[in-house]
Amino acid sequence: MGYDIERFVGYVNEGLLCSICRDVLEDPLQAPCEHAFCTACIHGWLVHHSNCPEDRQMIDVSLLRPLYRYMKNDLNRLQLHCKNREYGCEMICSLESIDRHERECEYSQIRCSNAGCTVQIERRNLDGHLAVCEYRSRECPNGCGYTILSAEDTQHNCVAELRTELELLRSEMICRVEEAKHEMESRLDSQRRHMVQKESILQNEIEELKSQMSRMMSDVRSLMAAERQHRQELEQAELEKREL
C-alpha cells in the first residue's frame, strides 16, 4: 500500500500514483509499459494475475525495475504531513526524510517498556509514565537485593524472598550435583568397559605369544635333534673312513 494522498501538501503528479491502490508510490517498481506500482501492491497483484492492471500487457516479476531516476527525485521531493498529525504533530517534510522523522517523532504512540504493561503512550510522555507505572521495577530498599514491582511493594517480605531464593539455589545445587554425579559415573563406566576390552585384547595377545613361543621351542628341539643325528652320522662316516 502507498502513502495516503491526503497527507501530501500541494499537487501530486498522476505519474507518481500507484496504478493499483491509487495512493502515492511507496517503495516503487516500474513495468516495461512504464506504469508504476508500490512493491507490495504489484507483488500481490501478480499472485493472481500475469498482466498490467492498467493496460493488460503481459508482465512478470522479473521484468519489474526501479523507478526512473527523475521520477524517483520528484517523488522524494514531495512534501507531506507526519502520520502523527492527528495527535498534534505539525511537522511537514519531504517523502525522502519522512521515515526518519516518524521513527523519532515525539507524538508517536509507543508501548511502555515495562514488562506486563500494555499502555500505549506518546513518546514525549513516556518518561512521565515510567515514573508512575505500576509495572516499574526497582531494587528492594531494605538491601535484600530483590527486584520488586511497585504493585508488589506492600506484599514484599525480605525474609520470605531470601528463603525462597535460598531454596531455589539449594534445588539448583542438588540438581547440579546429581548431574555431575551421573556424568562421573557414566565416565567411570565407559573407562571400565574400555579397560576390560583392553585387558581382553592384551590377554589374547599374551596367549598368542605363548603359542608362538611354544612353537618356536618345538622347532628348536627339532633342530637340536636333527643336529645330533647329523653329528652321529658324521662320526659314523669318520669311523668307516678310518676302517677303510
Automatic annotation (TrEMBL):
Residues 101-144 form the TRAF-type domain. The keyword Ligase applies. Keywords: Coiled coil, Ligase, Metal-binding, Zinc, Zinc-finger. Residues 18-56 form the RING-type domain. This is RNF41 ligase. One of its GO terms (biological process) is regulation of canonical NF-kappaB signal transduction. Gene3D superfamilies: Zinc/RING finger domain, C3HC4 (zinc finger). SMART domains: RING. PROSITE patterns: ZF_RING_1 (PS00518), ZF_RING_2 (PS50089), ZF_TRAF (PS50145). Pfam families: zf-C3HC4_2, zf-TRAF. Residues 192-243 form a coiled coil. InterPro entries: Znf_RING (IPR001841), Znf_RING/FYVE/PHD (IPR013083), Znf_RING_CS (IPR017907), Znf_TRAF (IPR001293). The gene is Rnf41_0. SUPFAM superfamilies: RING/U-box (SSF57850), TRAF domain-like (SSF49599). One of its GO terms (molecular function) is ligase activity. A zinc finger (TRAF-type) spans 101-144. The keyword Zinc applies.
